[in-house]
């Protein structure tokens, strides 16, 4: 009985987050309302406030769910995993409302009551862990500052998706990611590793 209740609570929370993502994606933080989110998610006020105390809490949950939409889709290692992470992200942001809403909320914090750098920092942390492993395995040049490079990648991808959104509605984002790696790989990949990296983003379509 307890297990059933716990499972139901988890499903309800996921339903609320998904509904909130749809509303945040469509209206932004300032245009979203708790009542609109409850209606989209199909939950009662009691269920909403059992899981989330405010719109700010909901926004943070959506923002911090971004890695969950990308990481489970990866099965590569080393430097290829980093490249693949950006490819999956480039495709998912076009079709997964949870990722798209998380990105929008993270980028549009100015003028809202949500001030949270943790989504950026979490992406940088994930990238740094994988890059450090790749460096230890000889795939990344020893002189590379992996922490600095990780933060640069987060910054570059953030700006790139904003530019792509303005230019093409993000349809050309995968190709822009390929161009980014063609510029970056020669400077960070050790030996002939760059030649072995698969830069075909359509593997993840």
UniProtKB/TrEMBL annotation:
SUPFAM superfamilies: Homeodomain-like (SSF46689), Tetracyclin repressor-like, C-terminal domain (SSF48498). The keyword Iron does not apply. InterPro entries: ArpA-like (IPR047923), CprB_TetR_C (IPR054126), DNA-bd_HTH_TetR-type_CS (IPR023772), Homeodomain-like_sf (IPR009057), HTH-type_TetR-like_transc_reg (IPR050109), HTH_TetR (IPR001647), Tet_transcr_reg_TetR-rel_C_sf (IPR036271). Residues 33-52 bind DNA. Keywords: DNA-binding, Transcription, Transcription regulation. It comes from the Bacteria. Transmembrane segments: none annotated. Pfam families: TetR_C_45, TetR_N. Residues 10-70 form the HTH tetR-type domain. This is ScbR family autoregulator-binding transcription factor. It comes from Streptomyces prasinosporus.
């Amino acid at each position: 009985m307890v297990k059933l209740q716990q499972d139901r609570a988890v499903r309800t929370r996921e339903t609320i987050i998904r509904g909130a993502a749809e509303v945040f994606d469509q209206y932004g933080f300032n245009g979203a309302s708790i009542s609109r989110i409850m209606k989209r998610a199909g939950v009662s006020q009691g269920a909403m406030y059992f899981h989330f105390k405010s719109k700010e809490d909901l926004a943070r949950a959506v923002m911090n769910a971004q890695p969950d939409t990308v990481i489970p889709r990866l099965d590569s290692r080393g430097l290829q995993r980093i490249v693949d992470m950006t490819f999956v992200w480039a495709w998912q942001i076009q079709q997964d409302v949870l990722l798209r809403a998380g990105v929008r909320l993270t980028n549009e914090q100015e003028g809202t009551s949500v001030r949270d750098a943790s989504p950026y920092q979490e992406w940088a942390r994930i990238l740094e862990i994988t890059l450090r492993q790749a460096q230890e395995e000889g795939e990344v040049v020893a002189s590379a500052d992996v922490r600095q490079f990780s933060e640069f990648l987060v910054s570059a991808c953030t700006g790139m998706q904003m530019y792509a959104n303005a230019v093409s509605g993000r349809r050309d984002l995968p190709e822009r990611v390929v161009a980014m790696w063609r510029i970056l790989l020669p400077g960070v990949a050790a030996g002939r590793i760059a030649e072995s990296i698969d830069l075909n983003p359509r593997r993840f379509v």
